[in-house]
Amino acid sequence: MDKKDTFQVVVFVASWCPHCTGMRQEVWTKTDVIKASKAYHGGKAAIIQVDKPGNEYLSEQFEIEAFPTVVIMDEKREIFKRAHNMDVEETINFLEEFDGNKQV
Question: Does 41 fall in a domain?
Answer without folding.
Answer: yes
